[in-house]
Amino acid sequence: MTNLRRDLEDLHDHARERLDAASSADEVDALRQDLLGRSGKLTGLLRQLGSVPAEDRPSLGQAANDVRSAIESAIGSRLVDLRGADLDARLVEEAIDMSAPGRPVRVGHLHPVLTLMRDLRELFHAYGFEVIEGPEVETEEYNFELLNIPPDHPSRDLWDTLYVAEPGSVEAGEPRPAADGTILRTHTSPVQIRAMRALEPPIRVIMPGRCFRYEAVDASHGFEFFQVEGLVVDRDTTMADLKGLLEEVARALYGRDVRTRFRPGYYPFTEPSVAFDIGCLVCGGEGCPACKRSGWMTILGAGMVHPEVLRAGGYDPDEFQGYAFGMGPDRMTMLRHGIGDIRLFFGADLRFATQFPEGR
Length: 360
Ligand code: DAH
What we know:
- By secondary structure, the protein is α+β, with helices and mostly antiparallel strands.
- It contains eleven helices and nine strands.
- The strands form two sheets. Strands 1-4-5-9-8-7-6 form a seven-stranded mixed beta sheet, with helices on both faces.
- Strand 6 (260-265) and strand 7 (270-279) form a beta hairpin.
């Protein structure tokens, strides 16, 4: 009986000594196992409790519990000391220089073509234009017929069209255009009809969007590109309004000294029609692949809205006139930055795209 009590006291002393000697948290953990674990020394002593006289058991049991909690709290405070020492060592070892400048966070930005399109939106907004969008998958009716381009008209060759296939015809090995005339729009001009039908005059809208053509790709042509269409319909609009507006836009984008010229052009949906050129800013007018060595780059087609198109939009041409233009923001971006090849825009090469961080 007295043996057990002494053994408990000895265990307590033994634990204190070994704890003091322990030099790491791992060592303390091992010690805890050895003293208090399932097959540890304290458990061993408790097993002897069954063989002591019944009247001594309660006080011995109490003594054993006291020793257990004394050892546990000694372990706890030893661990706190050791971890504190570990922490001090780590703080020294892993010290960081809080005064060092931070690494800049890399934030993405817009593609240069989108930046230009946003600039156009701002510019035209100042002239009272609103923005509307039309579908990229169009019908031949909107893309051609309603724009005064009849089915077999030779001018359709101007727009090499990507047709949506008739359902099932591809699987059957005989692809043919969809019977309902579904195509990918070749220009944003069909949105003119949608705008005229949806809005009340006076109409002043720009219509940005993606267009598609079955076209050989070169330095200034992609098979996929953007346009920003413009349309004004009112009772008293003239070619002079159109010219003044476009020259102002060119100056705003390229500076007051930009060289511009209007050339006669042909489009079935305008009469008269013009092409609007900017003195090539890639080569300064000397001639380069981007301007096909002409020194000029055409950035848009324009003209007075053809009476047939006004009628298709629901207006009486004797009462209303209008002007329209279709801008090429890809080319306009090439001019803005002196980029010599339109294919770079679709190349998805970050070394190219990240050179234009101003677009937010
Ligand atoms: N849709 C024409 C094209 O893609 C561009 C164009 C020319 C649009 C004259 C117009 C316009 O609105 O009046 O080539």
